[in-house]
Specification:
Layout (H helix, E strand, L loop, with lengths): L5 H9 L5 H30 L6 H40 L18 H13 L8 H7 E3 L5 E3 L15 E7 L2 E7 L5 E5 L7 E2 L10 E11 L5 E11 L6 E3 L2 E2 L5 E3 L5 E4 L4 E7 L4
Parallel strand pairs: 5-6
Antiparallel strand pairs: 1-2, 3-4, 3-13, 5-7, 7-8, 8-11, 9-10, 9-12, 12-13
C-alpha cells in the first residue's frame, strides 16, 4: 500500500497505540496489497476515477465497428457462394444438357377473373361443336306409342350382332304340357318382358320386369378340333338387371353379361312356372 494513502497515515499514527491483534491485521492487508501488484491498484484507481456516461461514446463506436465487421464478413461469404454457384452453372452448360427431364410447371390454382371466364364462354358458344349430344341415340332407343307416350329401350345391340342361319325355336311348357312354340331365327335379337309395346316375347307373370332379358345372336370366333379358327353365330342371353333374375338350367345367370345358350337349355324368367326349351329345327 502506498505510504501517502490516508489509510497508511492513519495506521502509522495509530500503530503504536493499537492493540497487537489490530497491528497483525494491518500487516496482512499490506501484504495482500503488495501481492496484487501495482497494476491492480492502478486499474482500481482508474475505475474509481471513471465517471458514469463519460466513456459511452467510445463504447458505442466500438459496437458499431464490431457490427460493421460482422456484416462485412457476411457479405463476403455471400459473394463467395454466389461466385461458386455461377461457376457450377457455367460448368453444367459447358458439359451439355442433362438427361434428367425437367419438372413440369405447376398450374396456377387461382381462378380466372370473371371477365376472362365470360369471354371464354362466349367464344366457346360461337365455335361449332361436333361432339355427340346423345339425342340421336335417345331417339333410336325411344319407342312411341299410339297414345302419345314413349318408352326408352334398356338394351342396344352390339356390333357383332348377326342374324342366325340355324332355325332356332323355343318350346314353351307349363308343367308337362306344351303351351306355345316360338320361332326365334328371323331376327338377330329378341326382347323378353311384360311391356307389349316394345318386347318381342311377352311374358304375363307379375314377377317379370317390363324389359326383363334379351336373346341375342352374336358372331364369335371359335377353334375346332384341328385348331382352325372360324366364325360362328351363336345364341346368347343377357339379363337386363331384372328384379327377380333369369334362370338357365336351374341356375341364376349374372346380370348385364352375355351367357351362351346351348341346345336343350331350359330358360325361366322371374318366378314364372313356364319353361322355355331351346331347340333347333334339325333337332326337332
Amino acid at each position: 500500500m502506498p505510504r501517502d494513502s490516508p489509510r497508511a497515515s492513519y495506521r502509522e499514527r495509530d500503530d503504536s497505540r493499537a492493540p497487537r491483534y489490530q497491528r497483525d491485521r494491518y500487516a496482512r492487508e499490506d501484504d495482500r496489497d503488495d501481492f496484487r501488484g501495482p497494476g491492480r491498484r492502478d486499474r482500481d484507481s482508474e475505475k474509481d476515477r471513471r465517471q458514469p456516461g463519460r466513456d459511452a461514446p467510445f463504447e458505442r463506436d466500438g459496437d458499431r465497428r464490431r457490427d460493421r465487421d460482422r456484416y462485412g464478413d457476411r457479405e463476403r461469404d455471400y459473394n463467395r457462394n454466389r461466385d461458386r454457384s455461377g461457376e457450377r452453372d457455367r460448368d453444367s452448360r459447358r458439359a451439355g444438357p442433362s438427361r434428367r427431364s425437367a419438372s413440369p410447371r405447376a398450374r396456377s390454382a387461382r381462378p380466372e377473373s370473371g371477365s376472362r371466364a365470360g369471354s371464354a364462354a362466349v367464344e366457346d358458344k360461337t365455335k361449332p361443336n361436333f361432339a355427340p349430344s346423345g339425342l340421336l341415340a335417345a331417339e333410336t332407343k325411344t319407342v312411341k306409342r299410339s297414345d302419345g307416350t314413349s318408352t326408352v329401350l334398356k338394351y342396344h345391340e352390339p356390333p357383332e350382332a348377326r342374324k342366325p342361319s340355324v332355325g332356332w325355336r323355343l318350346y314353351v311348357f307349363k308343367g308337362k304340357e306344351q303351351v306355345d312354340l316360338l320361332h326365334i331365327h328371323r331376327q338377330s335379337a329378341y326382347l323378353v318382358g311384360r311391356d307389349r309395346a316394345v318386347v318381342d316375347i311377352a311374358v304375363e307373370h307379375p314377377s317379370c320386369s317390363k324389359q326383363h332379358a334379351v336373346i341375342q345372336y352374336r358372331q364369335v370366333k371359335e377353334k375346332n378340333e384341328f385348331g382352325d379358327v372360324k366364325s360362328a353365330v351363336k345364341p346368347f342371353i343377357i339379363d337386363l338387371e331384372s328384379t327377380n333374375g333369369t334362370i338357365v338350367n336351374d341356375e341364376t345367370i349374372p346380370t348385364s353379361r352375355y351367357y351362351e345358350l346351348r341346345l336343350g337349355d331350359v330358360i325361366k324368367f322371374g318366378e314364372s312356372a313356364r319353361e322355355y326349351v331351346l331347340l333347333s329345327e334339325d333337332a326337332a
